[in-house]
Amino acid sequence: MNTGLRTCRRISGLPQAARCLLAPLLLLAPVAHAQTAPQSGGQSDPDPVLAPMPDIGVDWPDMGQPDAVTPMVELPPETPDAQRQAVAPEPSDDPVEEAVTFADAGEERRYTVRLTGVEEIADTQFITRFNELSTLHLGEGKPANLAQINRRIKEDSDLLDRLLRAKGYYAARVRGAVSAPSGSDRLAVTFRIAPGTRYLLSSVDLTGLETTGEREAKLRAAFPPTAGDPVDADAILAGQESLKVALAENGFPFGKVDEPEVRIDHEERKGDLDIVVNPGAYRTFGKIVMGNEKLFSARHVQRIARFHPGDTYMASDVEDLRQALVATGLVSSLTMTPRDAGDGEHVDLAIEARPAPLRTIAGELGYGTGEGYRAEVSWTHRNFFPPEGAVTLRGVIGTQEQTASFTYRRNNFRRRDNVLTGLLSVSNIKRDAYDARTVTLSGSLERQTNILFQKKWVWRIGGELIASDEADAFSNGNRRTFLIGAVPLSLTYDGSDDLLNPTTGFRLGGRLSPELSFQNSSFGYARVQVDGSVYRPMSDRIVLAARARFGTILGSTVDRIAPSRRFYAGGGASVRGYGYQAIGPRYGPNDDPVGGKSLAEFSLESRIRFGNFGIVPFVDAGNISTSFLPRFRDLRIGAGLGARYYSSFGPIRIDVGTPLNPQSGDPKVAVYVSLGQAF
């Protein structure tokens, strides 16, 4: 939608503006040609659609007056003789430039473009707009004849006039000239600009805000321009948008802000700014009204919302709810419309949601060194039990794993961001460390984080019942059956700036899982783990990242604890360069890893980014011990180099590592591929 700022010229001797015109302030670009410069004594022609650039259109003073805008230097009429004449620049202190002389009027030469006189007022925005919209810049580097260059000068002169007016310089003079510098094969196009006096606001009137009562002061503060400020179109339009937002954030859902109107007085070099505001009536939130409730009930949506009936209407709360509903993955389109409840106090929120495809079939096929072949397939219905009750059937067939599972997951359970999960799983897993046939029944309630709504605090409380028939190096080939009950708890603080690609801040998390195990006799123990990571930017392209992890099992001995419940280290999310679960003590004729009671891991890496790609040199270290505390003298160290591709949904990483002090049987090189940084 075009936004315009209505400006009027105040005629000397008249009490108020005599003539008005509506000039576009936001120009949509780019286009190939702009309008020609206004003729002496006339009004500016309507401007074409160009790139975003504010402007304030006014009637120009007579060109004969001292403060008139002087047209650029033009070529003589295009007669054969005149076409050979030169257009010489005004006298200046610049290096001597020869006049342009063409033996043939059709001769084409390249040129350069330069602006002078605006060094003190041309900020980055001014220069960027000129470079993006300039017809001279569009053709720079390509040969052009004198007539073409002259037409482009005229178009860019008008563009510069508009840019200067947008900054409040209504009495600017713009002169364009083309010359041939000595010793150069290119022509020089030079704009010499005299900005003149910058016009100031003599008054700012926001008509209509007085009807907002006690909220008037806060709303007025949302419009920064005041009397004495420059007549800056960018600042005025930014204030207009800020005022619109402030109305919608302070209980005025139907508020409107009309186009700004500026009355320019060229004699006084000032302008009067008037904006008509129609705030509408103050409203608080009423009820949520669903067009249909196949996906969500109004009651469920109200649980997700961060506002309650009776709260002051805030557009940001409505937008937050929209993002939360989109994040469920259940909607393909969504409209949310405030509607007056008709009671003089509330505004209801009418929601129309169209469902997205709710069923998904996914598959995965791969091979890994040390893990063998693996094929996985899953079927998910994301709203099998409305609202947001998803079920997933999953199967895995591989060299070392065969699994079948059923998962029930309800998002936004009872309140926003709470997730209720239930799992029934049957698996047969054969690793170098252990062989386990396991049936698991578990459930949990957790507060999760995600890419759209990254949260500082995340927690989880759950329960597990496990029946597992397992064998490891300690069992001498005999299998043991374990019945285990656990209550895992976790709490994490995330002070980083990004979930998948953190560049600053830190993370700290702790896990505690009291467990009761029965195998011939019952015994208890508790698994404790603490994780921490820190991210420090060293420059715009380099981030230094470090992490540490410590774990211990309180109670019992290693050989009594089920192999699948011990600590292990090694792999892409642990110590890179080593095989999965390969670090730590080994036992038996095959020298198999047996896990342990304590864990220590450390990582340090430098993330160096080049646009969408990056490299990551890293060093990892870690150890597993059968004692209560880890033995740091037995740390296994791995080092390597990673590559990153920074996609729109997060970095894709490939890490290649090698063990620096390997044990017998460790690989020479290990490769890891995943989404997101290593930590």
From TrEMBL:
What keywords are annotated for this sequence in UniProt?
Answer: Membrane, Signal, Transmembrane, Transmembrane beta strand
Question: Start and end of every POTRA domain?
Answer: 201-280
Descriptive protein name: Surface antigen (D15)
Q: Which residues form the Bacterial surface antigen (D15) domain?
A: 391-679
Main location group: membrane
Residue ranges of region Disordered?
36-55, 75-96
Give the location in the cell. Membrane
What InterPro entries does the entry give? Bac_surfAg_D15, BamA/TamA_POTRA, D15-like
A GO CC term assigned to this protein in UniProt: outer membrane
Q: Where is the signal peptide?
A: 1-34
